[in-house]
Write a structure and sequence with these properties.
One of its GO terms (molecular function) is ribonuclease P RNA binding. Helices cover 40% and strands 19% of the residues. The chain is of the alpha+beta class. It has one domain: Ribonuclease P, Pop5 subunit (Alpha-Beta Plaits), CATH 3.30.70.3250. Helix 2 crosses helix 3.
Length: 201
């Protein structure tokens, strides 16, 4: 029996505001506060109107717009549900998207071209929700298992929380990270399980 293989894409939804892109200055007390505010604006929460089903539908429509029937067929057809959103957190603006392994680059490309989500205050789960809030979908990790994508999402959320609190990561995580720094990819025993960003799998 043949096992159907999938890829899991960890996606961050970012909200860059060009007005907040001031020239970077050396960090100071006031500069540190300004950097924290800019970081909070970029990583702001997403509207509850963006549900997993709405995001999956938006993704399939973008693949259809970009690649036509061929792209939809590569995803498994219109009703096959080849693309699904396994996790979506509006609070952290993070999602995990599952897609067929053979066509994860199509999904990645479609995510790169998607640029709008429903505005905060839009009706939740509305089929015709107006996509009015500009955003950037950034694929952070491509993995062969859901567990690896979840672990990366947790690691990134902890790092952002520590950064915003101003706590030195080395002091808290130094023991854990310091011990693992000398070990060469102990966790990546199965190369097919985890795909790096530059991999051709």
């Amino acid at each position: 029996m043949v096992r159907v293989k999938h890829r899991y894409l960890l996606v961050e939804i970012l909200y860059p505001e060009p007005a907040s892109w001031a020239a970077t200055k050396p960090p100071s007390k006031a500069g540190s506060t300004a950097q924290t505010q800019a970081q909070l604006r970029i990583h702001s929460p997403t509207s509850d109107a963006l549900t997993p089903s709405v995001l999956a539908r938006m993704l399939r429509e973008e693949v259809d717009n970009m690649f036509g029937d061929w792209g939809v067929g590569r995803l498994g057809g219109v009703n096959a549900g080849g693309v699904s959103v396994k996790y979506l957190s509006p609070a952290t603006s993070t999602a995990i998207v599952r897609c067929p392994r053979a066509s994860f680059r199509l999904v990645w490309t479609a995510l790169s071209y998607m640029s709008r989500v429903p505005e905060i205050g839009a009706p939740k789960g509305a089929r015709g929700a107006v996509l009015s809030r500009p955003c950037v979908f950034r694929v952070v990790k491509v993995s062969g298992t859901m567990r690896r994508a979840e672990e990366e999402a947790i690691r990134r959320a902890r790092r952002e929380t520590l950064r915003l609190r101003g706590v030195d990561e080395q002091g808290i995580l130094g023991g854990l990270v310091g011990e693992l720094a000398g070990v060469d990819d102990v966790m990546d025993d199965d190369e097919d399980e985890d795909v790096g960003m530059e991999s051709d799998d």
